[in-house]
């Protein structure tokens, strides 16, 4: 399975859509809509509203997240925004500010 | 110059609409619309489609590019490629089998009086 990697010096300003896993080590501003998993890696900077299946955040993310399966904020992750997903995990050490909706 | 094996890849299932900038090698297998400005080697693979004005150091096209291209070193339009747009670079290579429509400017110094 092919993966897309947005490298650390890459800056994208706009909209990313797709149906394969996306790894962000660089900077993305705008909107991301994926039918797969999104990984914001350490060093990654995302300022975008996100619609996806799974998200794993080890970097910085500002924006609202809607995930159909799972959102995981790792210990190095920093998220500001509202999160909506049936499963949400926040690791010890992670920084989060916003609203959480697990559709309870 | 060959592209680095650990280059950033925009995969086949991804489309980007907007502005893309960067300093590292980039391989496009998916679709990019907007503008691209890269301080390195850009490769548009066979499955890649670019509808954008492109600035790069080196550009290699195997897929489809529609838009104006400016490269500071070399543009290589390979056998499977389709390019529509104006190309400006000191070195431009068009292989047998490639389809191209547009102007080419290699910054050739014109003779006196022309």
Number of domains of chain A: 1
The mean pLDDT of chain A is 93
Helix/strand-derived class of chain B? mainly beta
N to C succession of SSEs of chain B: EEEEEEEEEEEEE
Structural class designation of chain A: mainly beta
Determine the N-to-C terminus distance of chain A.
34 Å
Number of strands of chain B: 13
Largest sheet of chain B: 13 strands, parallel
**Biggest interface pair, residues each?**
A-B, 23 and 22 residues
Mass-distribution shape of chain A: globular
Q: Note poorly predicted spans of chain B.
A: none
What does this structure look like?
The complex is a heterodimer of chains A (104) and B (114). Chain A is an all-beta fold. Chain A has one domain. Chain A is globular, with a radius of gyration of 12 Å. The N and C termini of chain A lie far apart (34 Å). Chain A contains no helices and 13 strands. Helix content of chain A is 0%, strand content 62%. In chain A, strands 1, 2, 3, 4, 5, 6, 7, 8, 9, 10, 11, 12 and 13 form a 13-stranded parallel sheet that branches. With 114 residues, chain B is mainly beta. Chain B has one domain. In chain B, 0% of the residues lie in helices and 58% in strands. Chain B has strands at 8-10, 14-22, 26-28, 31-38, 41-44, 49-61, 64-66, 69-77, 82-84, 87-88, 91-94, 99-101, 104-105. In chain B, strands 1, 2, 3, 4, 5, 6, 7, 8, 9, 10, 11, 12 and 13 form a 13-stranded parallel sheet that branches. Chain B is globular, with a radius of gyration of 14 Å. The mean pLDDT of chain B is 91. The chains are: A mainly beta (104), B mainly beta (114). At the A-B interface, β1 and β2 of A face β1 and β2 of B.
């Amino acid at each position: 399975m092919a993966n897309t990697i947005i490298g650390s010096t890459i800056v994208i300003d706009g909209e990313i859509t797709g149906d394969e896993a996306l790894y962000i080590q660089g900077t993305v501003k705008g909107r991301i809509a994926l039918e797969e998993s999104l990984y914001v890696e350490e060093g990654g900077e995302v300022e975008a509203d996100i619609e996806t299946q799974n998200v794993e955040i080890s970097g910085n993310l500002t924006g609202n997240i809607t995930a159909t399966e799972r959102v995981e904020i790792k210990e190095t992750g920093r998220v500001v925004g509202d999160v909506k997903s049936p499963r949400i995990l926040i690791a010890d050490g992670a920084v989060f500010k916003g609203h959480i909706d697990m559709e309870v | 110059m060959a592209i680095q094996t650990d280059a950033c890849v925009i995969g086949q299932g991804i489309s980007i609409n907007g502005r893309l900038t960067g300093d590292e090698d980039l391989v496009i297998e998916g679709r990019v619309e907007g503008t691209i400005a890269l301080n390195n080697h850009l490769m548009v693979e066979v499955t890649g489609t670019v509808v954008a004005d492109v600035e790069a150091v080196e550009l290699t096209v195997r897929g489809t590019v529609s838009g104006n291209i400016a490269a500071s070193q070399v543009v290589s339009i390979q056998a499977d490629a389709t390019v529509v747009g104006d190309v400006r670079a000191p070195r431009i290579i068009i292989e047998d089998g490639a389809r191209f429509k547009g102007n080419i400017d290699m910054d050739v110094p014109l003779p006196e009086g022309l």
